[in-house]
């Protein structure tokens, strides 16, 4: 599975706390007061802070039947996030056929999963009035794209979007899943916050191109997940290099190694480099993802062309 297999290895993160410093604002002299806490007092203070921060936040509740949730996110749209999510789900299933894998598309305004997974139709309802996912390539899929016409725009305000997200999270009969891959919308808004605070998440994968403009938003996306205590598993550098199919010259259209530099800044791993290749685009557009339709191809099994540049 090459680069996609590397996305199957999940790690944890350590959260660090820091001591407080109080700086009075009034008066002509600057006074800095520090207080040393014993181990028990420090732990009590941490617990108290945690209680205050959690007030008003929804309590996380696991999705019934789902063991682990992996979210695939990006700060910027158009960087290949959905392509990565689809192929990651298929790689998880191919890596261990005994594992049940699902794919949830919470990009309400621009759902891509129906087309990429070659699925159409409306979900059936179970006896408990829950939506049953549509199935293809062995992956159970749910998306807002199954509930509205393909060309119909969703002109919804925030409350309607949040209601739709709640239904996608709580009113789907997934059966028993080992992994649920969640394709998030771009940005760091209401949907990302709602998903992160409502369900326990095993980790987040951040997708970006090497371009500076995309990396700025990817940085924000990674920091958002850290703020809500979701482990960031690492970065995927998509469209890392283009290799001419005729002369074999390699061109870094979006810049070289930008995501690797960001990963070093954030102290994260690079989970893989995915090249800009016609086969990947065509496979996605035809609803036959490359990990499924061409599992032995270079695009599925390798990181892509090496660092040599034109």
Automatic annotation (TrEMBL):
Name one molecular function that GO assigns to this entry.
4 iron, 4 sulfur cluster binding
Q: Where is the secretion signal located?
A: 1-20
| Segments of skewed composition (Basic and acidic residues) | 299-310
Q: What does this protein do?
A: Iron-sulfur cluster transfer protein involved in the assembly of the mitochondrial membrane respiratory chain NADH dehydrogenase (Complex I). May deliver one or more Fe-S clusters to complex I subunits.
Q: Name one GO biological process term.
A: mitochondrial respiratory chain complex I assembly
Annotated InterPro entries: Mrp-like_CS, Mrp/NBP35_ATP-bd, NUBPL-like, P-loop_NTPase, YlxH/NBP35
Name the protein family.
Belongs to the Mrp/NBP35 ATP-binding proteins family.
Q: Which HAMAP family match?
A: Mrp_NBP35 (MF_02040)
Q: What is one GO cellular-component annotation here?
A: mitochondrial matrix
Please give the chief subcellular localization of this protein: mitochondrion
Which Pfam families does this one have? ParA
Tell me the domain of life: Eukaryota
Gene name of this polypeptide: NUBPL
Enumerate the residue ranges of region (Disordered).
287-310
Q: Which cofactor does it need?
A: [4Fe-4S] cluster
Name the keywords, alphabetized: 4Fe-4S, ATP-binding, Iron, Iron-sulfur, Metal-binding, Mitochondrion, Nucleotide-binding, Signal, Transit peptide
Compartments where found: Mitochondrion
User: Know the name of this protein?
Assistant: Iron-sulfur cluster transfer protein NUBPL
């Amino acid at each position: 599975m090459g680069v996609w297999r590397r996305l199957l290895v999940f790690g944890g993160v350590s959260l660090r706390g820091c001591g407080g410093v109080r700086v009075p604002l009034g008066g002509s002299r600057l006074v800095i007061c520090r207080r040393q806490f014993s181990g028990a007092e420090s732990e009590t203070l941490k617990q108290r802070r945690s209680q205050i921060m959690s007030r008003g936040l929804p309590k996380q509740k696991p999705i019934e039947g789902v063991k682990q949730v992996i979210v695939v996110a990006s700060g910027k749209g158009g960087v290949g996030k959905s392509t990565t999510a689809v192929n990651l789900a298929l790689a998880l299933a191919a890596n261990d056929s005994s594992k049940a894998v699902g794919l949830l598309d919470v990009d309400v305004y621009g759902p891509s999963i129906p087309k990429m997974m070659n699925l159409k139709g409306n979900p059936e309802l179970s006896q408990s009035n829950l939506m049953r996912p549509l199935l293809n390539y062995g992956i159970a899929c749910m998306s807002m794209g199954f509930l509205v016409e393909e060309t119909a725009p969703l002109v919804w305000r925030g409350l309607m979007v949040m209601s739709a997200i709640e239904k996608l999270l709580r009113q789907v009969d997934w059966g028993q899943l080992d992994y649920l891959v969640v394709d998030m919308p771009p940005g760091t808004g209401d949907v990302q916050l709602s998903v992160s605070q409502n369900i326990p998440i095993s980790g987040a994968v951040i997708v970006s191109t090497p371009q500076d403009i995309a990396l700025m938003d990817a940085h924000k996306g990674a920091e958002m997940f850290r703020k809500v205590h979701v482990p960031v598993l690492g970065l995927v550098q998509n469209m890392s290099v283009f290799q001419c199919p005729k002369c074999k010259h390699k061109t870094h259209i979006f810049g070289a190694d930008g995501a690797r530099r960001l990963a070093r800044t954030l102290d994260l791993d690079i989970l893989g480099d995915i090249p800009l290749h016609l086969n990947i685009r065509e496979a996605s557009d035809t609803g036959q993802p490359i990990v499924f339709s061409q599992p032995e191809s270079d695009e599925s099994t390798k990181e892509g062309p090496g660092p040599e540049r034109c």
